[in-house]
Design goal:
The chain is an alpha/beta fold and 387 residues long. Helix content is 41%, strand content 12%. Helix 4 packs antiparallel against helix 5. It starts with a helix and ends in a 19-residue tail after the last helix.
C-alpha cells in the first residue's frame, strides 16, 4: 500500500513540476499563453528524476508510471486551456502526452543502464537533455510557422511613411555604402508574400487580385485619396494603419520631414467613409493586447474609432474595425506601432512558437488570404482583458 502511495506521489510531483516549468521557464506566463506544447522542451529533467525515483520497480510498474505522468500532464494542461483560453489545443495535448512517453522511455533507459557505470549515464543524460531541448524548440518553431503565400500570388501594394526601408538612418552616401537595412516588419512581410513598396497610387494601383496596405503615410494629394477610395469601392481589399499619435522612434531631429508623421494624415479619406479616429487614452503607455478573429494583436497608444459606418465589426474597444466600403472591404487599425518589431518579434529570431502576438500572421491573412492558423499549431492565448 505504501509503495503504491509513493508511486502516486511521484506521478503527481512529476506532472506538477512539468506544469510549473512550462508556465515559468517555457514562457506561458511571460507570453500570456497556455500552449501545452511549450512544456515539451522542459520534459527531460523531471522525467529523469521520475525515472530515478522509480528505478527499483519492475519494468511494467515503471512503464505504467510513465503513462500516468503523461495522462496527468495532458489533463493539467487541458484544464489550463479550458479555464484561461478561448480556443482548444487537441493536437498540442496529443503531442505533449506522446512526448512525455518518449522522454520517459529515454530517461528510464538511462537510469537502468548499468554496463558502463555512473559517469556514462551522467554524460548520456546531459547530452540527451540538451539534445531534446534544442530539437524540441526547432520542431515547435516549424509547427508554429505559417506557410508563405501561394506561388504566383499577386503582390501587396504598400504605401507608408514609416522608415521601413533604409531603416539604419544616416546620410544617403552612408546608407548606400552599407546597403539597404530594411526594417524587420518589411522583411517579415516579404517572407510571407510579394510586396511592392510605392510612393504613389495614382499610376501604381494594386494589380488584379492584389491588396493594399497603407501604413501611416505622409500627407497625400487629393488625387491619391481618390485612388484609394476608388480601389476599395471597386472591390479591393485594404488594411489601413492610421495612428492618432505614433510612437514610432525617430532618428532625425524634431521636425525633419524624413521622420514618420506624428499623427494620421488620412482624415479626409476616413471622413469620406464616415470614420472618425479618436486620440489614444491619456497615460496609455503600455502595450495593449486585443483579440481579432482569434488572432492576438499588440497595440501601443492606439486610438479608438469613435464613429464607423453601419455594419462595421469592432474589436478591442474600437481600436480595430472591419468595414465594407462599396464593393470592397477594409481593415482599420488605430495604431501604426502595430508593426513595430518589439511588439511582435519573438525573443529569439525564427522562434515562431515563442512569439508574443499574431500580428504578422494576421496581416498575411488579410493581405494574401493566408490564415494565421494555417500553421499546424497556433498560439493558445489567455483571454485578453480588452474586448
Amino acid at each position: 500500500m505504501m509503495a503504491k502511495l509513493r508511486s502516486a506521489l511521484h506521478v503527481v510531483a512529476a506532472a506538477v513540476t512539468i506544469g510549473l516549468l512550462g508556465w515559468f521557464a517555457g514562457g506561458q506566463s511571460l507570453l500570456g499563453r497556455v500552449d501545452p506544447a511549450l512544456v515539451v522542451p522542459w520534459l527531460f529533467p523531471p522525467m529523469l528524476l521520475f525515472g530515478w525515483l522509480q528505478r527499483g520497480q519492475g519494468r511494467q510498474h515503471r512503464w505504467r508510471g510513465i503513462l500516468f505522468v503523461a495522462l496527468a500532464v495532458a489533463a493539467g494542461q487541458a484544464v489550463s486551456v479550458a479555464t484561461l483560453a478561448s480556443s482548444g489545443a487537441v493536437g498540442q495535448l496529443a503531442l505533449v502526452a506522446c512526448s512525455v512517453v518518449v522522454v520517459g522511455w529515454l530517461a528510464d533507459a538511462i537510469v537502468q543502464y548499468r554496463a558502463r557505470g555512473r559517469a556514462v549515464r551522467i554524460v548520456a543524460a546531459f547530452c540527451l537533455a540538451v539534445g531534446w531541448f534544442l530539437f524540441s524548440h526547432v520542431g515547435l518553431a516549424a509547427l508554429y510557422r505559417a506557410p508563405p503565400a501561394a506561388v504566383g500570388a499577386p503582390p501587396v501594394t504598400m504605401l507608408t511613411g514609416l522608415p521601413l526601408r533604409w531603416a539604419g538612418g544616416g546620410d544617403l552616401s552612408a546608407m548606400v555604402r552599407a546597403g539597404a537595412e530594411e526594417d524587420p516588419a518589411l522583411l517579415r512581410l516579404q517572407a510571407a508574400g510579394p510586396v511592392r513598396l510605392v510612393d504613389s497610387l495614382v499610376e501604381q494601383v494594386p494589380p488584379p487580385g492584389g491588396a493594399l496596405l497603407i501604413a501611416h503615410p505622409r500627407a497625400l494629394a487629393p488625387v491619391e485619396l481618390v485612388a484609394i477610395d476608388s480601389f476599395v469601392r471597386g472591390g479591393g481589399r485594404a488594411v489601413i494603419l492610421a495612428d492618432a499619435l505614433s510612437g514610432w522612434p525617430t532618428i532625425y531631429p524634431l521636425g525633419d520631414p524624413r521622420n514618420p508623421p506624428v499623427t494620421s494624415l488620412l482624415t479626409p479619406l476616413l471622413d469620406h467613409w464616415g470614420v472618425t479616429l479618436g486620440a489614444a487614452p491619456p497615460g496609455d503607455e503600455a502595450p495593449v493586447s486585443v483579440d481579432v478573429d482569434g488572432a492576438r494583436l499588440r497595440l501601443f497608444s492606439a486610438g479608438a474609432f469613435e464613429a464607423l459606418p453601419d455594419g462595421c465589426r469592432r474589436f478591442g474597444a474600437r481600436r480595430v474595425a472591419f468595414c465594407r466600403i462599396g464593393q470592397g472591404q477594409v481593415w482599420l487599425v488605430g495604431d501604426a506601432d502595430l508593426i513595430f518589431a518589439p511588439l511582435w518579434q519573438p525573443p529569439v529570431p525564427g522562434a515562431d512558437h515563442l512569439r508574443s502576438s499574431d500580428t504578422m500572421e494576421w496581416l498575411a491573412g488579410r493581405l494574401w488570404g493566408v490564415k494565421a492558423r494555417e500553421s499546424l499549431f497556433a498560439p493558445v492565448w489567455i483571454r485578453a482583458a480588452v474586448t
